[in-house]
Amino acid sequence: MSESKRAAGRRAAEFIESGQTVGLGTGSTVFFTLERLAERIRDEGLEIRGVPTSIDTETKSRGFGIPLATLDEVEKIDVTVDGADEIDGAFQMIKGGGGALLREKVVASLSDRVVIVVGADKVVERLGSTFDLPVEVVPFARAVVHRRIEAMGGQPALRMRKDDSSAAYLTDNGNEILDVHHADGIADAAALERALHEIPGVVESGLFIGLAHAMVVGEADGSASVHERG
Ligand SMILES: O=C(CO)[C@H](O)[C@H](O)COP(=O)(O)O
Fold this sequence. Notes:
Layout: H1 2-13, E1 21-24, H2 28-44, E2 49-52, H3 55-64, E3 77-82, E4 86-87, E5 93-94, H4 101-109, E6 111-119, E7 133-137, H5 142-151, E8 155-158, E9 176-181, H6 189-197, E10 202-205, E11 207-208, E12 214-218, E13 224-228
Parallel strand pairs: 1-2, 1-3, 3-6, 6-12
Antiparallel strand pairs: 4-5, 5-11, 7-9, 7-10, 8-9, 12-13
Helix pairs in contact: 1-2, 2-3
The protein binds ribulose-5-phosphate.
Ribulose-5-phosphate binds at residues 25-29, 82-85, 95-101, 104.
Binding site for substrate: 26-29, 82-85, 95-98, 122
Subunit structure: Homodimer.
GO molecular function: ribose-5-phosphate isomerase activity
């Protein structure tokens, strides 16, 4: 599993060129991109500035010595490398397993090119078949959003912290996440995305439609293949 993530993450770092502003996604696959970018900065003098999509990525990037910028300091992003929880043949994705979906979507929307790095197990025929859809919600409205999503046929579950505090997980933005199960998967991701955004209290959904330009798929044998969206 981590060998496929490593292969994809490191391969994507090879596409980055000096002078670029680079969106830095979140997760265990992107970790390997950060690792390889740090090597290239050290060994080749690669000059980039990274825009992190989470506090976790910011911390890791600083540890690797990658120069960083905030969205206040950049007008656009040349290329973003990010992971996904599922991606289908049309390059539609479920993201947000790591809770960073809102910042990830903002950064992706500002990027000329978005490269998704995944292990082969993340490529699916139908979104929602292996992973529940994260939806970021304002805590005040959580119960209302929960009921609205249930009425739409989803089965939401409040994401909890992984310690024993019995407290709800909070995103970097102070919001909560409902992980929504769809028993038969998601038939029409674009329609669901539109419907979710019509619910007051929904901050963002983990459906990423039309945002990815390429995907790098890593395999357990350490190889990786690059696929461009048609
Ligand atoms: O969307 C994300 C975080 O919000 C991640 O990109 C996604 O969860 C994939 O993570 P990993 O590379 O650890 O499997």
